[in-house]
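PT: before anyone asks, these are the final sequences, not the draft ones from last week. 226 residues across everything. Please model them as a single complex and drop the result in this thread when it's through.
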Amino acid sequence: EADIYQTPRYLVIGTGKKITLECSQTMGHDKMYWYQQDPGMELHLIHYSYGVNSTEKGDLSSESTVSRIRTEHFPLTLESARPSHTSQYLCASSDWDRATDTQYFGPGTRLTVL
Amino acid sequence: SQQGEEDPQALSIQEGENATMNCSYKTSINNLQWYRQNSGRGLVHLILIRSNEREKHSGRLRVTLDTSKKSSSLLITASRAADTASYFCATDARGGGNKLTFGTGTQLKVEL
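LR: through. Structure below.
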């Protein structure tokens, strides 16, 4: 079982609210990722980080923002939630020093915006 | 368009049968990985095959890779009801900065 945690697991919130999805890992991994996944669909990379103070946008455009102030912590923030943000958000991490990029996933946060 | 596309989209088999899933991709890769996702959960890494490998085994899993056809297959032998899940291939594209691109997934249902 991977040591990567996400909170909350489920969140139902009204339009216009600011939300932060938490992700933390205890494996000391430099690389962290956020994916968005609609039910039964593929994962889309929305943000990634190669280390502290490093953040990049992924392949899928997202209105969310991320920060990486500590190695173990990679929170995702939506300033003003909208129904179109309803989805599952998955956080993952991997070890920069390894030659292969095996990613370890958290359990996900299922977000519903009313 | 997606780097990885999988077929079939869904597969239903009886316990004890073998399950085969296929993945096609578009660009040159460093490696290809298979992940499993139980409903509503995160993904779990199953197996990785490098671009210079053609076949790899892990327990009841067998993965093949054909870089000339840009395709891979995952075989689960002697399936069990607990194998019911979605299975995704993910490619680490050459020059892609070690980011993974996930396929569309195959939903496998193993019935008793």
